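# nightly structure sweep
# worker-07 picked up a monomer target from the shared queue
# config: single-sequence mode, recycle default, output format = structure tokens
# input follows
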Amino acid sequence: MAGLTVKFLGSGDAFGHGGRLQACILLQWEGRRVLLDCGASALISLQRYGVDPGSIDGILISHLHGDHFGGLPFFILDAQLHSKRTEPLLLAGPVGLASRLVDSLEVNFPGASRIQRKFATEITEMTPGAAVKWCGLSVKVAEGLHASGAPALALRIEATGKSLAYTGDTQWVDELLPILGGADLLIAEAYFYERPIKYHMSCTDMLKRREALNPGRLIFTHMSQDMLAHVDELPGETADDGMELTL
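# output follows
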């Protein structure tokens, strides 16, 4: 497989507007597979698009809201009880990921966090400003403005000489520009078309910064009903569940 392949397994918001599944993006390169975010519907996404959960090397989380993180307890239980995983599962995300995962496992499946598994769960917590090598990727992070009980991260991912930038969920802050700018692909939240809303970006927010960001390709995701109603008017691309591209 040449290049970095990106497949939207889930492109929706927290509320399933447009019948879309929650945030989950499959990255594939050189025989490796990573999920970028793992919303509560992630296992449904994987089944729908024929992706074996056992083939996933790692999961990279932008922030700790259920529509981006809530699929992890189900993924881990599937790995233990159904997929019979033995290879380590690499997890990365903001500071607080490890403790929130334990809490989430216990809320959903009491006792699940204490069960001995046949695979290791290796967690990397990334601080804003960090640049790390993780699961065969180069990852840089900046902190956005999105209340989730832990830092909300914007991410820049590099593999096979290609770069992907991902806003996660965030209100625009200028600190995002170095992480998001100049990427081969920018996947950007556009929750509303033009209405300003705290902790989120609108399509208009992103379009007025497009020249400064200068992405090779811009794709909008995480769209509410308001944004979906304007899809046919947009000058850019929008993600759909099942959409696939190669950089």
